[in-house]
Each structure stands twice: as structure tokens, then as C-alpha cells.
């Protein structure tokens, strides 16, 4: 595999990544280059390690005290596990959106969007307002909420809440956006909005998305990685994975024979 | 916000129309080469068939990519119909090539003195092809239905040409080889009209979700043109 550590077309360079929870090795020797300004989908049956992989990309798995990693992950050439790098800094550069939308229930729409900025010490109203509008526009939510920015976030529909969470992640201007089944709790229309949004966002961001919906992976992603039992079985262009995968395990999974 | 799937469908439609325009040109030029005894034009039709073949491969590839994204309803019909239309266009290209080959052979022999309705037949077949593609683009299943009965006109012309040629061969055995070339060209035009009919039926299915093949309901609701 080529070393792409300093290649501007590669956002994340993962080498020999292994993740343990206690004595349990849930990810084994994963090496992968995540292309910049592209969508990479992670597919695989439950328990295959795809969410663990996603969390390792912004050190989120460290929130579990049992977790431990081996290997190397570089973000545009910077080792994100280097001793002098704070996890908080990594998470600012690599944002995350979860399966279940999780806006802060007591905060307004605006407060939700700007919470990351305010935690980082940004106080200036002008900047906060600008960033609110910009983030909500990027999340394709602005037109729907611009007249009620101070309404509670939980007054929004499920699909809107999820786009609010995307706006919140975008407000701190990350370089990479991780999405863990962002549309699995949404109806088809809200799902389509999220998928269209993903395709808009990839012009400026690198996106890694975990999904159980293979048609969704086919619709939104440029590259697809298939994980099984903690191992990366196959990683290729999405078109290849869904029409003529190289490995029999991938073929069996995408045709629904297991998983 | 732009709908990414629609963009893929637009690309598919665009490619299909490009292919259709090549197929139309091929039919037009092959008949022209035949009637005007134009060797160069016949050769060009044969050479350009590769473009149509290549477009068929590209359309198949695009269709397969779109199918992985699980299109539904009209989108599903559009994607599958596009594949079938492209297959018919490819066959039309092959028939045009066959005509071009006969045109080449005939141009190297003295002409036979016989009046055949082949240009008229070609005119109808081409019009059917053009109208079926217009019906596809304009979402017009009624126009597509109106095309289908015209296939009978072309069949009748082919039969008439066949009979004239048989008669000529009986009376002028030295023209048998040339008459057979004309017969094959006429048959190819008849096949081109068949493919145009297939496309029209697919267009009805696409925009009405109704399969009218092999039902005897062909062209129902459409007036049979007077000719």
C-alpha cells in the first residue's frame, strides 16, 4: 500500500490499527487511506468493528476506560495519537454525528449550533451569528428554521434535529465529518435530505459514514470498506464493491447471504 | 438542493439520446449509400457502428451503477427501459451496417432497372424511430402508442418489395445476386421498424406503467394513420 501520509488527497492515513476493549481485540490490523473531499462508507454486520473504527478516527473510543489502541492514524500528516495532542483538539478537527439525533434539549436552535464555539471561548455575537447562519445553511436547515432560531431544538422534527446536529458539528469547522448511521432513524424523505446533504458537504469536507443500508452506501459514497469480525475484508471504489467485489465474503454480505 | 440521483438519471438520458442520434444517422446514411450508390458513405456507416456499440456498453455500465442505488417506481422503470432501448438502438446500428454492406456490394455492380419502394419504407422506419425517441423525451405515451400500428405498413412494404424482387429474379436470372442484396436491405429496414416498435412499447411502459407487449392491445387508443 502506498504511503500517503503527506498526500493532500488523503485526509486520514490509518496503519495497522488494532483496538482492544479489555482483552477483547475488536479491530485487527486495519490499514486504509481515507480520501479527502470524498465520502467513504463503512459497511459490515453488527459487531464487525465499524463503529469502533469510526470512533478511533477521533479518539472517541477513549471515553471507554477499557479501550486501548495500537497502530497509527494520521490526519493530513499529523499523528492524532501523538503524546502532545489533546483528544479535544482531534475531535475539533474530526467531528461526529450519531445515529440518534442528540441536540441539547434545554438549548435553542442557535445555542445548539454555537455550543462548540462557545466552549472554545468564542464570545463575539457577530461571529456566533455568522457561524450559526453559515452552519445551518450548509446543513440545509436554514430556510426551515431562520424564523425561529431561538425556539427549543427539540421542537424540530427528527430529520431536522439530525440536520441540526450536522450543523452543530460543522460550526467548529472540522476537516473530517464522521457519521454513524445518520439516517437510520429517519423516514425516506428525511433520509433523502441527509443523503443530498452528504453529497453537498463532500465538496468541502471529508466524510466517513457507517451505514447498514447498502443502497445508501451506493448512493452517497465514493469508496466503501467492508469490515467483518474486526477485519477490513475489502476496500475499493463503491461502484466496484456493489457490482463486482473481489472477495467472496463481500459478495455474500452485499447480496444478503449473511449479516 | 440538487438531487444526486436525478443527476445520474439525466446523464443516462443524455447518453441514450446521443446513442439514438448516432443510430438515426446510421440508418439515414446507409439508405442514402444504397440509393445513391455511395461507397464512401457505406464505409463510414460501417466504421461509425463502433461508436454505437461503445455507447451501449457505457449505458449498461451506468444502468448497473444506478440500480445499485435502489431506484423505485418511475425511476426504476426508467433505468430498466433505458437499458432495453439502448439494446434496440444497438441492433438498429447493426441493421444499418448490414444495409451499408449491401450498398457497398451493389455499388460495385451495374444497377438493376427496377422501381422499389425502399426509400418510402426507410422514411417510415426512420420516422418511427424518431417519434419513439421523442415520446421518450416528451413523456408522451399516446405518441408512443401511435407509432405501433405503423409497423404493419412497413411489414407490408417489405412483403411487396420481396414479391417484386422475386418476380424480377424469375424474369432476369442474371440479377439474382443483386436482387438478393436488395432483399436483405429491405429486411433490415423491416427489422429497424420492429426495433422502433419495441422502443415505443417500452416508452408506454415507462410512462404508463402498463406492459402492452404481446397483449393484442398494441397502439390501443391511437388512430391508425392513413397512408
Report the CATH superfamily of chain A: P-loop containing nucleotide triphosphate hydrolases
- Poorly predicted runs of chain A are 1-5
State the major sheet of chain B: none
Q: In order across it, which strands form the biggest sheet of chain A?
A: 6-7-8-3-9-10
CATH-derived topology of chain A: Rossmann fold
User: What proportion of the residues of chain B is helical, as a percent range?
Assistant: over 70%
Mean pLDDT of chain A: 93
* Beta-strand percentage range of chain A: 25-35%
| Count of DSSP-assigned helices of chain A | 10
Largest sheet of chain A: 6 strands, mixed
Task: Write structural notes for this entry.
The complex is a heterodimer of chains A (259) and B (227). The relative contact order of chain A is 0.17. Chain A has 259 residues and is an alpha/beta fold. Chain A has a single domain, classed as P-loop containing nucleotide triphosphate hydrolases (Rossmann fold, 3-Layer(aba) Sandwich), CATH 3.40.50.300. Chain A contains 10 helices and 10 strands. Helix content of chain A is 35%, strand content 26%. In chain B, helix 1 packs parallel to helix 3, helix 5 packs antiparallel against helix 7 and helix 6 runs antiparallel to helix 7. Chain B is built from 7 helices and no strands. The longest helix of chain B is centred in the middle third of the chain and has 35 residues. The termini of chain B are far apart. Chain B is 79% helix and 0% strand. The interface between A and B is medium-sized, with 15 and 10 residues.
Amino acid at each position: 500500500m502506498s504511503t500517503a501520509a503527506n498526500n493532500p488527497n488523503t485526509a486520514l492515513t490509518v496503519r495497522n490499527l488494532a483496538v482492544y476493549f479489555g482483552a477483547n481485540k475488536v479491530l485487527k490490523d486495519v490499514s486504509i487511506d481515507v480520501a479527502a473531499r470524498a465520502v467513504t462508507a463503512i459497511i459490515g454486520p453488527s459487531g464487525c468493528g465499524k463503529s469502533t473504527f469510526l470512533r478511533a478516527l477521533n479518539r472517541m473510543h477513549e471515553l471507554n476506560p477499557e479501550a486501548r489502541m495500537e497502530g497509527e492514524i494520521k490526519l493530513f500528516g499529523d499523528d492524532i495519537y501523538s503524546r502532545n495532542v489533546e483528544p479535544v483538539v482531534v475531535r475539533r478537527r474530526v467531528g461526529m454525528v450519531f445515529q440518534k439525533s442528540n441536540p441539547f434539549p434545554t438549548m435553542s436552535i442557535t445555542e445548539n449550533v454555537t455550543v462548540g464555539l462557545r466552549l472554545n471561548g468564542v464570545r463575539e455575537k457577530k461571529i456566533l451569528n455568522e457561524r450559526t447562519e453559515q452552519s445551518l445553511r450548509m446543513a440545509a436547515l436554514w430556510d426551515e428554521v431562520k424564523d425561529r432560531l431561538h425556539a427549543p431544538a427539540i421542537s424540530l422534527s427528527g430529520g431536522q434535529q439530525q440536520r441540526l446536529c450536522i450543523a452543530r458539528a460543522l460550526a467548529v469547522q472540522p476537516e473530517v465529518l464522521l457519521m454513524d448511521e445518520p439516517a437510520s432513524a429517519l423516514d425516506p424523505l428525511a433520509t433523502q435530505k441527509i443523503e443530498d446533504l452528504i453529497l453537498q458537504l463532500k465538496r468541502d469536507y471529508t466524510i466517513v459514514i457507517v451505514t447498514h443500508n447498502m443502497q445508501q452506501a451506493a448512493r452517497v459514497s465514493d469508496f466503501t470498506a467492508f469490515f467483518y469480525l474486526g477485519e477490513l475484508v475489502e476496500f475499493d471504489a463503491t461502484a466496484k464493491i456493489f457490482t463486482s467485489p473481489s472477495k467472496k465474503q463481500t459478495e455474500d454480505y452485499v447480496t444478503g447471504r449473511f449479516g | 438542493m440538487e438531487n444526486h440521483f436525478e443527476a445520474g438519471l439525466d446523464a443516462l438520458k443524455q447518453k441514450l439520446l446521443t446513442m439514438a442520434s448516432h443510430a438515426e444517422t446510421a440508418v439515414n446514411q446507409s439508405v442514402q449509400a444504397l440509393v445513391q450508390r455511395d461507397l464512401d458513405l457505406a464505409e463510414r456507416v460501417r466504421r461509425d457502428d463502433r461508436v454505437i456499440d461503445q455507447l451501449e456498453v457505457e449505458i449498461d455500465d451506468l444502468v448497473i451503477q444506478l440500480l445499485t442505488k435502489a431506484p423505485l417506481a418511475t425511476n426504476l422503470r426508467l433505468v430498466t427501459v433505458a437499458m432495453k432501448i439502448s439494446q434496440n438502438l444497438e441492433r438498429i446500428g447493426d441493421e444499418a451496417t448490414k444495409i451499408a454492406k449491401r450498398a457497398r456490394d451493389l455499388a460495385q455492380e451495374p444497377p438493376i432497372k427496377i422501381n422499389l419502394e425502399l426509400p418510402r419504407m426507410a422514411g417510415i422506419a426512420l420516422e418511427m424511430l424518431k417519434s419513439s425517441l421523442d415520446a421518450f423525451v416528451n413523456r408522451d405515451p399516446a405518441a408512443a402508442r401511435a407509432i405501433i400500428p405503423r409497423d404493419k405498413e412497413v411489414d407490408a412494404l417489405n412483403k411487396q418489395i420481396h414479391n417484386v424482387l422475386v418476380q424480377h429474379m424469375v424474369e432476369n436470372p442474371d440479377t439474382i445476386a443483386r436482387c438478393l442484396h436488395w432483399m436483405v436491405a429491405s429486411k433490415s429496414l423491416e427489422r429497424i421498424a420492429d426495433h422502433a416498435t419495441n422502443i415505443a412499447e417500452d416508452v408506454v411502459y415507462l410512462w404508463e406503467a402498463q406492459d402492452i407487449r404481446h397483449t393484442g392491445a398494441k397502439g390501443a387508443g391511437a388512430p391508425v394513420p392513413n397512408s
